Amino acid sequence: MESKNVVFSGGGGGGLDNEGFVGEEPSCEKTINSTPAETNPTDEEEDAPDRQTWSSPLEFLLSCIAMSVGIGNFYRFPYVAYTNGGGAFLIPYLIVLFFIGKPIYFLELALGQFCSFGQVKVWEAVPIMRGVGYGSTLASFCVVSYYVSVMALTVFYFFASFQKNLPWTVCDPEWNVDCADNSTSYAEIYFEKTVLQILPDISSGIGTPTWELTLCYLFSWLAVFFSIIKGVASSGKVAYFTAIYPYIVLIVLLITGATKEGASDGMWYFIKPQWDKILEAKVWYSAVSQCFFSLSTGFGPIIMYASYNPFRHNVYRDAMIVSLIDTGTSLLAGFTVFSILGNLAHETGAKIENVAKSGPGLVFVSYADAIGKFDQVPQLFSTLFFLMLFSLGVGSAVSWQMAVITVICDQFPKLKKLHVTMATCGACFLLGLIYVTPGGQQVLTLVDNFSGNFVIYILATLEVMAISWVYGLSNIVTDFEFMLGQKIGIYWKFCWGFFVPVFLFLILIYSLVTMETVEYNGVPLPGRAIAAGWVLASCCLIFVPIFAFIEIFKNSNEKLTLLEKVKSSLTASSLWGPKSPKERALWENYVIENKSKSKKGSCFKRKK
Question: 528 forms bridges with which residues in the sheet?
């Protein structure tokens, strides 16, 4: 068989040219320095894994972009930025992105691709930490259920935009308010009374689901379901729209907004630096929160997406591209939002800080109000805008839901993926009906705080510590160098081995010390609701000690002491490694050769 050398060069660019998409995984000779230029089809079939693969590298890249660039980039980043120092916030944010966001993103992509497993089975590397995978899966399940409810709001506004007059620009007698009172905008009243039918207090209950939002919620879940009905084969095709269309609309809206009066004041307000805030710990905490929320690190979808890659795909390149695009999109969204808000402030005579709402209110109140004041075809801009938000939501929701499905299918491979997809989407829909009740926004705030932020900090910290300090930095670097065909630089080693775990641990301590009462619209949530939030967080975290206990005591060898069983559960299992038998043989040879060169003892420990 004809072969050619693979050079494990230091630093820089690409991996192997033959990336082997659609199951065309490159076959290898069982010597460390050779891969075949041509393969025998029969050999490929024998060596091909059962796991589905992406149809093309572009679909994988676009899916990662659609996953990371979500609705939060549009409403969360602009608000977090201007409330935490404006342009000055970009300094801690970019530092956090460079030393935490990118390293974790690359680590998770490489982990998933190396072993071709989802976020639970990837812990064959450190079996005692398997609970981290289950905890992140439950967190993803919780987050996707409320995230789709936000998509339902975009559907509601999308269809409302087809009316002759945008309904949030005129006073509705059913609101029972003084229409001459300008202290509260019609857009805000419409959002609270017509769309959410919000309850000011949930102490006495959250009410029943509203039929309008329930239909929008069902529509959103159907969109997610049909996007993933054939796994990555269908979600990859959807990504062409969900990853590209939003940028077309963003650019159109930015050009439109930038040409209006007051736009420059709005954009300057967005980036105006408040240098004194850089030294505040809260600003750095906000930078880490935004980075995690934006890139979707710690939840599991990144590992899941990469697990459907061919083993030799250049995932290093994709990690760089996605992290840069995600940051660029956040900035683009910030300029787009504040150019329009600047015009709104100019038209109403109000200050920009008074028209810029926090959270979803930024897009469903402030931005909707601004679009409603456009002189020409506001309905067109409104439909384009809310369709863009919906497409952003689909891209992210698909990734979270597929992460849950992949875990179940990995654990129970005999189950049909279609049945698992139907069951999980149906369960999420039923549980998520709580978010389309009059008290749903308060519940959403609670779940987001405890399962979307607090829990993920802990799980991400444990993830990086376990991989770098338990499995071993030298081991994981050796694995990735073999897979990518290039050396892992000192920057990655420093971040994985020291900076990320230490910094995340400090941030975790800070978040616990400074934790404040959860509020919605300035009103503290009831004590019972806070207690329920802690129960939810505990349910996600309890998986860690439970599965650690199971892993330690499932060893039936009575000759082993407790300490020996603990050590055994800290050692990579026989399932860890490349899924392809030929790649696995080549990997084991590479590890042995690497060991003999280093002369520092074995860098590869695996249960027999």
Answer: none
Residue 51 three-state SS: coil
Tell which residue, 57, 56, 59, has the closest CA to residue 67: 59
Confidence of residue 429 (pLDDT cuts 50, 70, 90): very high
What pLDDT, in 10s, does the model give residues 199-208?
Answer: 877 777 788 9
Rounded CA separation 96/85 (Å): 15
Percent of the chain residues past pLDDT 90, beyond the cut: 47
Q: Which residue has the tokens 């009462």?
A: 517
Tokens read off for 526: 């009831």
Task: Look at domain 3-155+235-404+450-509+536-598 and name its CATH class.
Answer: mainly alpha
pLDDT tens profile 507-548:
888 888 887 788 887 788 888 889 999 999 999 999 999 999
Neighbours of 208 (CB within 10 A): 11
239/422 Cα distance (integer angstroms): 21
pTM for the structure as a whole:
0.85
Compute the distance between CA of residue 541 and CA of residue 543 in angstroms, rounded to an integer.
5
Q: How far is CA 104 from CA 133, 296, 306, 474, 486, in A?
A: 15, 10, 13, 17, 19
Written as one letter, the residue type at 431 is L
**Range 475-480 contact pairs with CB under 8 angstroms and sequence separation of 24 or more:** 475/572, 475/603, 475/604, 475/605, 476/107, 476/125, 478/590, 478/591, 478/594, 478/603, 478/604, 479/114, 479/577, 479/587, 480/110, 480/114
Cα–Cα distances (Å) from 550 to 459, 547, 559, 581, in that order, read 19, 5, 18, 29
b/e sequence 226-238, b meaning 16+ C-beta within 10 Å: ebbeebbbebbeb
Residues 6+ apart with CB under 8 A from 6: 16, 33, 34, 35, 485
| CA–CA distance, 285 with 508 (Å, rounded to integer) | 9
23, exposed or middle or buried, with CB in 10 Å at 0-12, 13-18, 19+? Answer: middle
Residue 43 has pLDDT above 90, yes or no: no
Give the C-alpha separation, 91 to 75, whole Å. Answer: 20
